[in-house]
Automatic annotation (TrEMBL):
Transmembrane segments: 36-60, 81-103, 109-135, 147-167, 173-195
InterPro entries recorded: CDP-OH_P_trans (IPR000462), CDP-OH_PTrfase_TM_dom (IPR043130), CDP_ALCOHOL_P_TRANSF_CS (IPR048254)
Protein name: Membrane protein
Keywords: Membrane, Transferase, Transmembrane, Transmembrane helix
Organism encoding this protein: Gemmobacter nanjingensis
C-alpha cells in the first residue's frame, strides 16, 4: 500500500552503497543471490527460536533486495535480474511463517498455513496480472523502476516486512498477527481479481 510512496526515498538512500558495490565489481545478481541466502538462514534461526538473529537476517535480506535494484539501475537492468528478484521474494515470504511453524507447531502451524495460503493468493494474482499486462505492453506508472508490470495492493512489501519484524519482536503474537495479515492478504487478492477482471475485459 505504501511501496510506491517509499520508492523515491529508497532510491536516494541506496544509491551511495550501490555505487560502492559497482566500483568493486559486484553485480546486481550477486547481491540478489547473497540476499536470498541471508533470508533463507532466517528459517533455521526462527525454527530454533533465535528471534533476534532472525530479525537481523530478515533486515539484511530486505536491504539486499533494495540494493540489487539500485545496482541494476547503475549498470543496466536485465530480465534475469527481474526474474530472480521476484522469484526469490516470494520464496522468502513463505520461509518466514514456515520458520515460526517449526518453532512451535502446536500454536503456530495452522496460522502459518493460513498466512502462506494467503501469500499464494497475493503472489499468483500479482504475477498473473503482470504476465497479461506485459503481453499487452502495459506498465505501472507508480512503479517505473520495476522490471515487471507491478500491481499494488493493501498488502505489499513494506507491510509484509513490518509484519515479519513485529513477529520477531513479539513471537508469542504470531498466531494473531498471522491471522490478521492473512485476512488483509485475502482482501488484496480479491481486489486484484476485480482489477484484473475489469482491466482485461474484452473490448
Amino acid at each position: 500500500m505504501i511501496d510506491a510512496a517509499l520508492l523515491p526515498l529508497q532510491h536516494r538512500l541506496l544509491r551511495p552503497p550501490a555505487q560502492a558495490l559497482v566500483a568493486r565489481g559486484i553485480s546486481a545478481d550477486q547481491v540478489t543471490l547473497a540476499g536470498f541466502a541471508l533470508g533463507a538462514l532466517a528459517l533455521p534461526a526462527l525454527a530454533f527460536g533465535a528471534w533476534g538473529l532472525a530479525l537481523v537476517l530478515i533486515v539484511a535480506n530486505r536491504l539486499a533486495d533494495g540494493l540489487d535494484g539500485a545496482v541494476a539501475r547503475l549498470t543496466g537492468p536485465t530480465d534475469r535480474g527481474a526474474f530472480l528478484d521476484i522469484a526469490f521474494d516470494f520464496a522468502f515470504y513463505a520461509l518466514v511463517p514456515l520458520g515460526f511453524a517449526l518453532a512451535d507447531p502446536g500454536a503456530n502451524a495452522l496460522p502459518a498455513a493460513l498466512l502462506i495460503a494467503s501469500f499464494i493468493g497475493t503472489g499468483s494474482s500479482f504475477l498473473a496480472f503482470a504476465a497479461i499486462a506485459a503481453k499487452r505492453g502495459e506498465v505501472a506508472p507508480a512503479y517505473p523502476s520495476k522490471g515487471i508490470a507491478y500491481l499494488g495492493g493493501l498488502t505489499e512489501g513494506a507491510e509484509t516486512i513490518a509484519l515479519f519484524l513485529a513477529m520477531c519482536l513479539v513471537p508469542t503474537a504470531f498466531p494473531l498477527l498471522a491471522g490478521l495479515f492473512a485476512a488483509a492478504c485475502t482482501l488484496t487478492t480479491v481486489l486484484r481479481w476485480w482489477w484484473g477482471w475489469r482491466a482485461f475485459a474484452p473490448l
